[in-house]
Amino acid sequence: MRSLAAIALLTAGCAYQPVSIAPADRFMAALGAHCGKAYEGKLVSNEAADADFFGKRMVMHVRQCSAKEIRIPFHVENDRSRTWVVTRTAYGVRLKHDHRHEDGHPDALTNYGGDSRDPGTAVRQEFPADAESIALFTAQGRSVSNSNVWAIEVSNRTFAYELRRPPGPGQRYFRVEFDLTRPVAPPPPPWGS
């Protein structure tokens, strides 16, 4: 067993300190347990900004899984442009959004997201917008998104994807929940795969 002095020497100068491994690993294992399966979901938030999602069929598909990365396409009707990319890092969990056009080319707004800043739990991880995302949003005239915090939850019954912005101009709350007790047929591959 290492002494506290040895641990201090090993971590000296590190900008980030590794978070507790257990919650992030349990979270990734819970997601990975659904690999290959697809689930239908529904919008549970009710904001005017979400009007393009109202009444639409939504399916998430835990399509590709490795020890470090899980790719989850999110289909809205026939729109297969969105994939959530969840990665296990040395410091926690990272969420990125891969957005593609039907021809497979990346959208101007793609690869945004962030890293967990605290251990989170085996059920819920939160991802504040990272510096790369803030620069992208600002360059694309979408700086209202600079305060985005995304979250993913996975329990025995439900998978949820959430976006929040703090109260004030640009406030936003978006949440989709998927029933993990009722798998559906996997959808076609996402655009660009």
From TrEMBL:
Taxonomy, superkingdom: Bacteria
Region of interest called Disordered, as start-end residue ranges on this chain: 99-121
Name of the protein described by the UniProt record: Lipoprotein
Organism, as annotated: Sphingomonas xanthus
